[in-house]
Amino acid sequence: MAVQYLFQDGRGRCMTPSNDVAETADMAIRYPMAVGLNKGHPVTKNVTAPKHSRRRGRLTKHSKFVRDMIREVCGFAPYERRAMELLKVSKDKRALKFIKKRIGTHIRAKRKREELSNVLAAMRKAAAKKD
Fold first, then answer.
1. What is the mean pLDDT of residues 120-129?
2. Residues 6+ apart with CB under 8 A from 16
3. Which structural domain range is residue 2 located in?
4. CB atoms < 10 A from the CB of 66, how many?
5. Which of 54, 77, 92, 105 is the most buried (most CB within 10 A)?
């Protein structure tokens, strides 16, 4: 049975003269009700620009350029060179444990191991291209 709402009371609730319980299957249309998933006055949401703080930590072109330049000039740290040697002989788990001991956290160690393995892959690719 479809219920037609005839009037609203002062609190924004839709009422019928007999206060019948409406079937949920027939209530697909949104009404300004005080309760339920779609409660409240129907409004359109404002489109706001994302906050500047949301881009914190994202790599910029300039910072990437600076880090690459420093890597090119200074090379790798001694612990990074040792970890790369461990990765060369397929000791990934030992390299992770070694890097974690030096850096301090597991997640940063995993990230560093991935970075060093990518560097080794790039070096192998460059050597293969050179030959």
1. 94
2. 3, 4, 5, 6, 22
3. 1-40
4. 11
5. 92
| Cβ atoms of 86 and 121 closer than 8 Å | no
Q: Count of domains in the chain?
A: 2
In a domain, 57, yes or no: no
Q: How confident is the model at residue 131 (pLDDT cuts 50, 70, 90)?
A: confident
| Three-class secondary structure of residue 40 per DSSP | coil
Tell me, yes or no, whether 130 lies in a domain. yes
- Does residue 55 belong to any structural domain of this protein? no
Side chain identity, residue 27: M
Taking the C-alpha atoms of residue 73 and residue 89, their distance in angstroms, rounded to an integer, is 26
Q: Which residues contact 30 (CB under 8 A, 6 or more apart)?
A: 38, 42
The end-to-end CA distance of the chain, in Å, is: 80
- Residue 87 belongs to some domain of the structure: yes
CA dist., res. 93 & res. 75, Å (int)? 24
Q: Cα torsion for 102, 103, 107, 112, to the nearest 10°? A: -90
Residue 97, token pair as written in the block: 């444990």
* Residue 1: pLDDT over 70: no
